Amino acid sequence: xxxxxxxxxxxxxxxxxxxxxxxxxxxxxxxxxxxxxxxxxxxxxxxxxxxxxxxxxxxxxxxxxxxxxxxxxxxxxxxxxxxxxxxxxxxxxxxxxxxxxxxxxxxxxxxxxxxxxxxxxxxxxxxxxxxxxxxxxxxxxxxxxxxxxxxxxxxxxxxxxxxxxxxxxxxxxx
Length: 174
Ligand SMILES: Cc1cc2nc3c(=O)[nH]c(=O)nc-3n(C[C@H](O)[C@H](O)[C@H](O)COP(=O)(O)O)c2cc1C
Prior knowledge:
The chain is of the alpha+beta class. 31% of the residues lie in helices and 16% in strands. It has a 4-stranded antiparallel sheet with strand order 1-2-4-3, with helices on both faces. 30% of the residues are buried. The structure holds flavin mononucleotide. Flavin mononucleotide binds at residues 11-12, 14, 66, 69, 112-115. Flavin mononucleotide (FMN) is lined by residues 11-12, 14, 66, 69, 112-115.
């Protein structure tokens, strides 16, 4: 698939069929993450691959809205940064997250970004702390996102070109 078609066909997938992701595809996803660029090539990120069904269910409860879909995914990849070591941790983790989603798309897998950073678990705890506790992630680290991956129950249509916000493109000054 051309890159232009890849970025068009990627849509958030929130419903998955019950089918594991093959080892070769997990390997390709791994490489996509590790090829992702980081500021000053510091590579202060970590990625946790979760396939255990019980843990996927637990992680689906990390925040009250927008995380239920994790339960039905075959795989969740938790994207962890380090704000102590890198002042570009959000950018580094965001780039890795979207590259992962595009690689998943090329492999005919569906994916959805689940935002963890700055989201509450409940009144007392952040979603980030909840995820860190469940997965033994050191307190000093930061969790930006969790990317849920699996075979889509239904392929969503690309956004129609007529809906693109061309008025957001400015030629020259704002
Ligand atoms: C930074 C970011 C955070 C997101 N967080 C969530 C989330 O927590 N839960 C969710 O279901 N979707 C989440 N999404 C997916 C967006 O809702 C989705 O990308 C957007 O509605 C556009 O739809 P599309 O991905 O199908 O093109 C997030 C996307 C981004 C880029």
